[in-house]
Give the backbone structure.
Amino acid sequence: MSNPRQGQTLFVGIGSPHGDDRIGWRIADLLGTRMPPDISIRKAATPSDLLDWLEGIDRLIICDACLSRGGTPQDEVHLHRWEWPTLEIAALRSAGTHAFGLPQVLQLAERLGTLPPDVTVLGLEGLCFDAFAELSPEVAAAIDSFIPKIQAVCAGRHVSEAVHHA
Amino acid sequence: MSGPRTVKIEALTRVEGEGGLYVQLDGNHVEDVKLSIYEPPRVFEAFLRGRPLEDVPDITARICGICPIAYQMSCVHALEAALGVTMSPEIRLLRRLLYCGEWIESHALHMHLLHAPDFFGVDSGIELADQFPDEVTRGLRLKKHGNELLEVLGGRAIHPINVAVGGFYKAPEKDDLLRLLPDFDWGLEAAIATTRWVATFDFPDFTRDYDTVALQHPDEYAMNEGRVASTRGAVVAVEDYEQHYEEFHVEHSTALHSRRTPDHASYHVGPLARLNLNREQLAPAARRLADEVDIDWPCRNPFQSIIARGLELVHAYEEAISIIRQYKPLSPSRTPYDARTSSGCAATEAPRGLLYHRYQIDDAGKITFAKIAPPTSQNQQQIEADLHAWLPSILNGDDDHTAMQCERLVRCYDPCISCATHFLKLTVDRGESA
């Protein structure tokens, strides 16, 4: 993992070794070999890790697994994109076991004046979060197809709000 | 208020993991208290069976994103006990340095973002940052130091991968450690200021006749080895731990509880226990600060555990600075061993308290049995007993007030439910006529 320098974009994949909660880490690994040097890539196990890495960062892109609230087909993998601040993220309850969830981390950084002005949150829907499970076959099959879109987000190009892969 | 009443906390906040609390009352009489951990059991012990012993440090590190080093330390020491590996003094010292990093990261996080808000009537570290931006910023900087040390020694801050049975896969470069020193010198002074700050908090007048249990070592503030000591006087070898402390299942929790044997009494592990037993072995600045803060030792007020964490934060900085200054690169970085059918156990001091591991290995070096007793599991029965004693004094408000006060007490333990499941919603049952 590369360390961020002044004025850089930081991409953070949040994850764990439990099934599709690996998504953030896997995306970070996949991006790691395909990104320009002005974009730093890091992996986090808890959202609070982010608080250590914000100095000198202009843009922050966070990728984490998320759970569908229904309404989308269960055999499709969906990528969601939010620009912070958004009530949709602020109202989220962390689904994981993290003491300090992503919305709280972003709010705290905002209060302390350390949050970059440009923050994007990418949520990729997971299907299975069993302990130590590998990615679900659906997510494993689809994850590569999201990389160009995530690269475009990192490059600051416009991407449609939500994309999915059957 | 008369008659039966039930108070429920459906999901505890500012704790690691998911659990709830159920309280059943008859008037002001506490009928029942249940700390219910409903996070799914993660069955790590079963998962380890059949795996090569070399995989254990990396797998157990993933039980928890907050305290991976604790799991790595307990498991490698237990496996080394089984294999008859004697580690070099240099490896032993480097492991203490690694543990200092985790204590700094975990204590700074809990003190500033999870526990301190309780003393100012605010719901979160975010609101606390409005009142105390400098203190919260300072706390985050301390937490970052801990993570940076883990990154240098552990290969990475998140689920470190450099800890090996026998030592380390790769010895850190001296320059990488020396680079940390200016920040750590600042951090020591900041940790002292933080401890003085938390010592001024308004603590509830609530003391308990605890049996506090922690490792004790004749030559040092115990982290990675020692005997299991108790303020009730018993000091036992780690090999005898299971004869004196036993796990048991309760229906309302997916995490095993622990109790002392044979009297089935609860006991208290964590920073307060360590300070009560080992205060004289703190590093000099932490030792002086322990005398300066307004506590009559041994401390039996769980709310003052935040001061205990502060003192350990200071100790961890002092010890880390000392070890870094004297560090010479290890060669070799690992002690070799031969796999053999054997068994071994070890206990180390996780930020939240004593963490016990025991393993059995076969001739091929595969794990045939694993037992892990995390500190939050051991504290569950004590937390319920504390709540039972605390509740009569906090029933004069509505259920929200009672629930909030209960959560305050639970957070004193910095419970790690993720670790224990192998934890909070509050339900107060005051019955129909509440």
